[in-house]
Amino acid sequence: MSPAAALEAYLAAVTVEQLDADPYPVFARIRAVQPVAYVPCVDLWWAVTWDAVEEVASDHRRFAAKPIPSPIDRTFGEPNVLTEDGAEQRRLRRMLDPSFRPRIVEQYAPPLVEPLIAEHLDALAGAGRGELMADYFEPISVISLARVLGLGMLEADTLRRWFAGLAEGVINYESDPAREAIGQATTREVDAVLRPILAEHLRAPDGSTVSAMLQAAEGDLDERLAQVLPTLKVILLGGMQEPGHGAGSVALGLLSNPAQAAAFAADPAGLARQAVEEGLRWISPIGTQTRRVVDATTVGGIPLPAGAGISALLSSANRDEAVWGADADRFDLARTGPVQAAFGYGTHYCVGHHFSRLQVQLAVQRLFERLPRLRLDPDHPPHVQGWEFRAPRTLHVRWD
Ligand code: HEM
What we know:
globular, 58% helix, binds protoporphyrin IX containing FE, 5-stranded mixed beta sheet
């Protein structure tokens, strides 16, 4: 059997459960044979090498943002910034850009995030042990962004429940009815809760992102909500979930290797930037930029039919041995290389990249400064899960 035929047979047996448990061996198996392959359990072509990922994700003329059918559109509604291209995408993105320009973020992010970090560390510090995802990284992630957006009145637990529920709908490439029901129920709840809050923002704008979005939209309240809510849901999922998830992966990478954890603890301020880039490379919180093949084409010599769905696997590009070396699967605080791919490529490159980097750097830095001899709790091993959205679901730690 040829290597390509053997790969096809292997991929025919791959399941979504297997990918959720650990997709990296599957990515490596594909990369060893070809840059792009069809994966039946998700009905998607996957671009897996560094070069193929960049090619697909950077070229919105050959690879359009709207896959058909789109679980993203089913969950968020249309039009949303993520699945539009051209003038409509630029219009929706312009509504968001002012709040997340690097120079603006540098002014408001540290004074916003530092007190939240201190408050959560104060609550944890005396306990000697804790679960960092639910009690530290995720609350800081959701509360800080909620305040930037103008949604600071919402509870952290509500926002955490929302991002988890929206994620079930968005990853549902396999059209699982249970996942679909969770995604749709969350969408209905988000719409109902946000409607009066957004009405108030329209009546009395306060300089927040949501106020600016409503001002930039046109028409009466219902018309403006229809223009704003789908893109706001992109942020309620990606923006709320990923910094917390990314921070958890950075901490897990450090804590999985006591020598690296000790090196980091000796100089958290000096090493925070490097640790965060390596953690986001090692486990990329958002695995893919998923697109539609506009006209039949080839990538890396593999023919792709018109209309097919194709995912540019950022998570696989970030483990490509050809770029990162034979130890690409290892978290290495001293790693050198190109800028990792976790924030994507092209016109849909992450709006919140600078805000996320700053927030995650501060959260990890202050954690190691405050809690001496931080280490994994041997009684509760970390549980890492997901292929489209991958992160530690729990991260139990101890300290002295
Ligand atoms: C570590 C944290 C984060 C990671 C790894 C991440 C990653 C990504 C990636 C890979 C994309 C491209 C998706 C695609 O093209 O299909 C994206 C888009 C986007 N991100 Fe993030 N993100 C993070 C945090 C945030 C935050 C905090 C915000 C808050 C504003 C945000 C807002 C957005 C928006 C609005 C888009 C869509 C942009 C467009 O379609 O033009 N993200 N993000």
